[in-house]
Design brief:
Oligomer: single chain
Number of domains: 1
Number of strands: 2
Shape: globular
Radius of gyration: 20 Å
Strand order of the largest sheet: 1-2
Structural class: mainly alpha
Largest sheet: 2 strands, antiparallel
Length: about 300
């Protein structure tokens, strides 16, 4: 009798990869989400304790602000670090649930496709520069003159270079990886896996209406390009470069990292840039499906 690994496997799109797990059962992807949530809750508690405990030891009567300060190293670390923790949490949770190889959560190749990431870097930088130009124009040209220049210690730039890509990758692993593949295990049409996670992504971003429109377009577009390319690489690159650009604008006094209000020109420019990126990358894409040989060689 053939084992599940040796049995012929039809080509699978990214959102259907849970079906390739050894001894797949309908409840295993759901178990992966539950385990990931539990691991994340524990890890988040430990991180918060590690960040705040030294300050409490130094000053037991210290009062912490209700909102994090993104321009303070501790506040920045806590904000982006707690999100970045989703990455190891989802990898461990889905590994325990039976996702093998765990790289299938990333792509149909079962690994990170560096060539694809390289092809996505230039489009991501170009569209992010366009978004930054519109944001700068609205903040300086319309909002009035202000002091522009690096307004945080330079180590904050290094901190952003480390934490922001991890935060972006973590969100993609959760929303375009774990959630898409869980839904795709039950619902074959990719539209379900692309659209159903969008409300959950919006709940994690407390913006006004224009901002939520931009976030919604981003969620749909990155899910679509994930399905088309068969992996998270394009979405991770765009997400990471975009967030680094936002941080740089904030550190230079052009934008406000804590702002939840987004103007319609900026929101529409963001949406246009994201659509431009996915169409640009899609025009250069390669295969986006899992082949049987991938499972046998993993």
């Amino acid at each position: 009798m053939q084992t599940p690994v040796d049995a012929p496997v039809p080509p699978l799109a990214h959102h259907r990869l849970a079906r390739s797990w050894p001894q797949y059962r309908w409840w295993k992807p759901l178990l992966g989400l539950v385990l990931s949530a539990v691991i994340y809750a524990v890890g988040g508690f430990v991180l918060i304790l590690a960040v705040l405990l030294p300050q409490l030891i130094q000053d037991p009567d210290a009062e912490f602000p209700a909102e994090l300060d993104f321009y303070d190293p501790w506040g920045f670390t806590l904000s982006f670090g707690t999100i970045a923790l989703m990455l190891p949490a989802v990898l461990l949770g889905f590994r325990l649930a039976g996702c093998r190889p765990i790289g299938l959560l990333l792509s149909v190749a079962g690994r990170l496709r560096w060539t694809l990431m390289g092809r996505c870097l230039v489009p991501a930088v170009v569209v992010t520069a366009g978004m930054a130009a519109v944001s700068t124009w609205t903040q300086l040209g319309v909002g009035g003159a202000r002091e522009v220049g690096l307004q945080v210690p330079w180590p904050m730039l290094l901190l952003a270079l480390v934490l922001v890509p991890m935060q972006a990758a973590a969100e993609e692993y959760v929303f375009r990886g774990a959630l898409m593949q869980t839904l795709g295990a039950w619902l074959k049409h990719p539209g379900w896996a692309i659209l159903l996670p969008v409300p959950f992504f919006l709940l994690g971003h407390d913006y006004d209406l224009p901002g939520q429109v931009g976030i919604g377009v981003f969620a749909v577009a990155t899910a679509w390009i994930t399905w088309r390319t068969g992996g998270l690489e394009a979405a991770i690159v765009l997400h990471g470069v975009n967030n680094l650009g936002v941080c740089l604008l904030g550190f230079c006094g052009i934008g406000d990292l804590a702002a939840m209000e987004v103007s319609w020109p900026v929101a529409l420019a963001d949406a246009a840039a994201v659509v431009t990126f996915v169409l640009w990358v899609d025009g250069r894409r390669r295969t986006g499906r899992l082949r049987a040989s991938t499972l046998r060689s993993s």
